[in-house]
UniProtKB/TrEMBL annotation:
Keywords, comma-separated and alphabetical: DNA-binding, Repressor, Transcription, Transcription regulation
UniProt protein name: DNA-binding transcriptional regulator, AcrR family
PROSITE patterns the record matches: HTH_TETR_2 (PS50977)
Domain of life of the native organism: Bacteria
């Protein structure tokens, strides 16, 4: 393994560890030493990659977001646009342990963004990326004729807002909301706008 590959590998290990630690104990309680220990690296190496907690948090959030989007890009050119959109909406809910960890990170982001301008800009930027992500799936379906023409920006905003609302209820363990009921409601909204079948597609 080359020096550059080792550097990338150690950075990836640190970011994965940071996501786990932040999700477990919250950003306000973490110390750089905790992340280093969890990643199995020295604090010196951790500080070589990330000069402070704020930089580490920003990179961890970006890392988590990028990892999820990469996973959903598999066979994206060979499956219907409805399946791509359904995958995205599924991934925007806390539907498994990994996504629940991602949701805990988002909740930390929201709390910090309320009192820190830099974090607020990061949150808005990540939402812009989510908006584009959903919008691309919608435009693909519209362009292929699979979806009816729609206001892509407005539909993307509505679907993201619904994901946030249902996601919070799921994270709280609200008995009135289940993953199945959330997905059904999300898809019903999408189906009305896009004039497609109301059944949530098989992923």
């Amino acid at each position: 393994m080359s020096s550059a590959e080792r550097t990338r590998a150690s950075r990836e290990r640190i970011l994965s560890a940071a996501c786990e630690v932040i999700a477990e104990v919250g950003f306000e309680k973490i110390r750089m030493r905790m992340v280093a220990e969890h990643a199995g690296v020295s604090t010196a190496l951790l500080h070589y990659h990330f000069e402070n907690r704020e930089k580490l948090f920003t990179e961890a959030m970006t890392h988590s977001f990028a990892h999820t989007s990469t996973e959903l890009e598999r066979d994206a050119d060979t499956v219907p646009a409805a399946v791509i959109l359904a995958r995205i909406l599924h991934s925007l809910l806390p539907t498994d342990p990994v996504l629940r960890q991602d949701w805990r990170l988002w909740q930390e982001l929201w709390v910090r963004a309320l009192r820190d301008e830099t974090t607020q800009r990061l949150a808005v930027d990540l939402y812009d990326q989510l908006h584009d992500w959903v919008g691309q799936a919608l435009r693909r379906g519209v362009d292929s004729g699979e979806f009816a023409d729609c206001d892509v920006d407005a539909t993307s905003t509505t679907l993201l807002a619904l994901c946030d609302g249902f996601g919070i209820r799921l994270m709280l363990g609200d008995p009135r909301v289940t993953v199945a009921s959330a997905q059904t409601a999300l898809w019903a909204t999408a189906a009305r706008e896009l004039k497609i079948a109301p059944q949530f597609p098989q992923l």
